[in-house]
Amino acid sequence: MSLFIYEGVTKSGEKVTGKFFGTYQELVKELKNEGILLTNIKEETKKQKKGKFTNDDFANTIEELDYLVSSGVQLDKAISIMIKNASKLSVAEFWESVLKKLKEGKTLSVSLKETGVEKEFKIPDFYINIISVGEEIGNLHSAFKDIISDLKFRENLKKEIKSATAYPIFLLAVSVLTVFFVSGFILPKFSEIFTEKELSKLPAISKMTLDFGKMVNQNIDLILIGMFMLITLIIYGFTSGYFVKNLSKFIYSIPLLKEIALKIELANIFGSLGTMIEGGVDISRALSLSSRIAGNKTLQNILKETVAEIKKGKRISNVWARYDLIPDNVISIVAVAEQSAKLGEVFKNLGKRYMDEFK
Predict the structure, then answer these.
(1) What is the H or E stretch that residue 44 is in?
(2) Where in the sequence is the domain holding 307, given as residue range(s)?
(3) Which of 153, 251, 274, 316 has a CA that sits 20 to 30 A from residue 341's CA?
(4) Last residue of some domain: 187, 208, 243?
(5) pLDDT of 95
(6) Which of 154, 185, 205 is where one domain is finished?
């Protein structure tokens, strides 16, 4: 992609100048369609930022695509405009791949799914389903709107989690560093003040404290290596998924942490269910997709069983009433929503409510 500054002449002999971002072939075609004869051209290469295609990039481009499509721009033309305006190389490459698949005759939902796999960018299945439904009913604007709403919901949820955990983590880190510093550098100085006779007269707790300080001071290299190995192990555990899986079990075994974790899980699940149902996704399909994003194994099983029971003609509220993990007030609200056929709206409100409770 390049920026072209061109000069030309119209059929009436009028001189025109302008700028065009794209390829040379696209510029020539554009001017030909407008009846302009190209007389002079200068190319200026537009520098694009490097980096991987991120969730923020996806959210921003979906919002931009929604704006263009809802303004009456054809889908392929809208994507072409986004590619031309992309300030990041990975964004341009992602949507170029989508556009190529669209021109091959594939739908937008299929094109996005295949491109996500090729570019190693995970697009949630329920987003693909919402777009697929939007294509079927001819209302992509509604599909994009639901996805944007869910993306904003998830972003706000992440911010609340970070905000709630940042201060305790900071206090824990400061406490560990303080203990390490005092034990390794301050306490050994105190022990030098006392003679052997005086040390023998100190209370047992004081002796233990001074001995601990000596131990830290004498083995500081080994302690630093151990801390480095521990941090490396934690990072590996998070990236491999093993640590996260077992951490979930640990959290749900502690009442206070369980309550907080459950609110986060329910906010996530209810928000997703609301987005999918309002986006036209079948309830059983929405529950099945939501079970994949649940971090807690019990919640996953509840959602999977709900799908099976719904197919037998049971109500969601009746199935959830069997489980203590689902709050009673949620079951009551869902029961009313099932009768009023406003499940999508109710689930969205429940998601927002649990996120607000977490704040």
Answers:
(1) strand 36-45
(2) 255-358
(3) 153
(4) 243
(5) 93
(6) 154
Residue 199 has pLDDT above 80, yes or no: no
- Segment 70-89 shows an average pLDDT of 86
Same domain (yes/no): 24, 83: no
Mean pLDDT of 90-108: 92
Residue 282, classed as helix, strand or coil, is coil
The total number of structural domains that make up the chain: 4
Question: Residue 309 falls within a domain, yes or no?
Answer: yes
The pLDDT, as a whole number, for residue 21 is: 66
Write a three-state SS string for the chain: CEEEEEEEEECCCCEEEEEEEECHHHHHHHHHHCCEEEEEEEEEECCCECCCCCHHHHHHHHHHHHHHHHCCCCHHHHHHHHHHHCCEHHHHHHHHHHHHHHHCCCCHHHHHHHHHHHCCCCCCHHHHHHHHHHHHHCCHHHHHHHHHHHHHHHHHHHHHHHHHHHHHHHHHHHHHHHHHHHHHHHHHHHHHHCCHHHHHHCCHHHHHHHHHHHHHHHCHHHHHHHHHHHHHHHHHHHHHCHHHHHHHHHHCCCHHHHHHHHHHHHHHHHHHHHHHHHCCCCHHHHHHHHHHHCCCHHHHHHHHHHHHHHCCCCCHHHHHCCCCCCCHHHHHHHHHHHHHCCHHHHHHHHHHHHHHHHC
Express each pLDDT in 295-319 by its tens digit: 778 888 999 999 999 999 899 999 9
Residues 187, 139, single domain; the answer is no
> Is residue 161 in some structural domain?
no
Task: Note whether residue 249 is domain-resident.
Answer: no
